[in-house]
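Troubleshooting log. The previous run stalled partway through. Resubmitting the same two chains, unchanged.
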Amino acid sequence: MSKAFGRNPVLRGVSFTLERGEVLALVGENGAGKSTLMNIISGGLAQDSGSMTLDGLDYRPARPVEAMRRGVAIAHQETAIMPDLTIAENIYFRREPRNALGLLRQARMHADCTALLAGLGFALDPRALGHSLPAAERQLVEIARAIERRPKLLVLDEPTASLSAHAAETVLALMARLKEQGTSIIFISHRMSEIMDAADRAVVLKDGALTLEARRGDFDRDDLIQAMVGRTLTMVFPERPAPSSKAKPVFELQSAGNAQLPPMTLALRSGEILGIAGLEGQGQRPLARALCGADPFTQGTILIDGKAASLSSPAAAIASGVASIPDDRKHDGLALSLPIRMNMSLFAISEKARFGFLPLRAERSFAQDARARFSIRSTDLEQPVGELSGGNQQKVVFARWLAHVPKILVLYEPTKGVDVQSKSEIYHLVGELAAKGVGVIVISSDLIELIGLSDRILTLYEGRLSGEVERAAFSEERIMALASGPADMAREAAHV
Amino acid sequence: MFDGSLRANLVLSLPALALAALLTILTSLLSPAFLTEANLGNLATRLLPLGLVALAQAIVLFAGRIDLSVGTIMSLATAIMALGSLNLGWAAVPLTLVAGVACGLFTAAGVILLRINPLVMSLATAAIVKGVTLLLLPSPGGEVDYVFYELVFEREALFGPPLLICLAAYALMFLLLGWSRMGRAIYAFGSDAKAAFANGVSGARVDLVVYGAAGGIAALAGLFLSIRILSGDPLIGEPYTLDSVSAAILGGVALQGGRGSVAGVLFAALALVLVNNMFNLLGLDTNLQAIAKGLIFVGALVFFMRTSKSEA
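Second attempt completed without errors. Output:
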């Protein structure tokens, strides 16, 4: 199977087989092509070339509804929950029980839903509206809906990414039960421990190509990571000395918060890379938006270099020396239809402007230098940014923000949809900046990235800092436990 | 009985109910002429076209779309009735309705096939329909058979045919939107089109249904309007476009789609008719009416924007 978006190939000749009652883990970094593959299987996208068979019959769903009819159900990671319908209405959507006149039986449906959710072990209220649900509950609704369709093939796209350790266990147990009933399951996961536990077979994608297909027992964690990343982790991440513990704090939050963010206190030292980990939707977005001044802090104190500072707007944040790379470069970072040259100079070289006009020569030479420095691969400076690969787009964003060395660099999901080569370049760039004394905050859902890059990791849970781990004590399990909140931490402690 | 999202949507219609009740009390206190049989009959007569066109608009808004051609479709309907009712008799009625549905389907076709922005496409339809109407009937005139008037408007009473027709249309749509799969799909599509598509909803079918239904109901509104004035008028429908959006928003329908109930729209249409009635009874300048209506519209937008924000 192959698929390209514009000039960027996202799947390159991927082939694999899944047997009845088998659980297959699809593994790969962000941007490796996993979600594209799942979308093709579930009818959301069409492949450019290649074919699928389901139970020996040709399978090429043109729309999601055709995939459903053939017995393929998907639980999306970016959940497809209708916000103004209740949980029950979402789960039974288009399969609602009806009376003899063809009218919907609302009460019956909500009762069925109560029974279904109890059977699955999900503590959800069938009458709660979609828009009132936190990320984890939306995910459970998505999973319940897929299971209620009684599919032959169940596709789960990162089912546990937003779940606490306890809820994730419930889902994994459910997968085991379905498998025994003969359901085939494909699941995407970034959590090595659950892949090792649950998968009968693992398929690894890297930059759209299949790099490993192995049965249980024939692979271990290191094989998976090697296949995902293409080389050992030490080559991907910069080798850095630990920052001096005497280094002064360059950035401090003291009980700083706003309407979406409970007050938090943290200190970032000069030259330190501070990772912020957490399950999905635990306050990462409000924190990133507060740090860049988009949804500013409204209470508490912010200190930069020990002096009170204001991040009351993006302009104020920039003036205070805070550079921020947003997670959604397509909406918050780039003007996709404009050339690289103009995207880079949007504000970076405004001091070169004369009487409000920017000399074209200055703009061009700035863009030329930046393109070389960040090794951006493009036909020329006039190529529209939308035509570049994700990795090169992200480097354009970096080039713009790093025209001057900032005091503090805030990165939010810096390598989402970025190929491994560009990732490594971005990591090394961040390492160089830290070596120059820049304090770096990395907010990311990619634990491998956080562990590889950070000197220290804080965990967010329900908007509050729930734990802190120093580099020497980094482990996926430890961080997951801290990120799962107090209840799970207590459970963890009881195990030990 | 009103379970699930239906209950949440009914809650959104309470402000309009409160406003309609308040206006009723206020006007009856201010003017002794309010609670007379003639005035109440007049209220029902005025509620019929506005109520129907607001219902048409609400159906489109539930799907997250908007139809700015409903007013001109009403005008077209009056023209067809004025030209056809004497020679064609009863056949003019289905002809009018089919013309309305065709206008709606034309808008939907532009949205589906040419991928034109729905708001802009409905404006284009409005321009075309207006042109066709003016070709058919360049100035107010024609004649609508008095038989129709006798049937609908002769007896001036609150609980006469106009009110019953209006209530029946609302009851039918309340049932279809709340208790049919198509109704659920319309709400789902308006709530989140992408999510609805991922769950098997055909956006094209939703567009055809909502615009087709809106066109037909708008034509029905125009039909009753022509019966009331016993003639046609190529421009009479135009103010109803804004009034229809106004009533829908005031009734708790979200501009973004997916929220609100036709119950609220009925209360809001009633409130707008009451404002009109109050101004007339108190002998206030009609231009003040337009200003008051515009302010009510803005007020409703602000009020419902606040409430939806505080929920999110």
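Takeaways: The longest strand of chain A covers residues 249-258. The radius of gyration of chain A is 24 Å.
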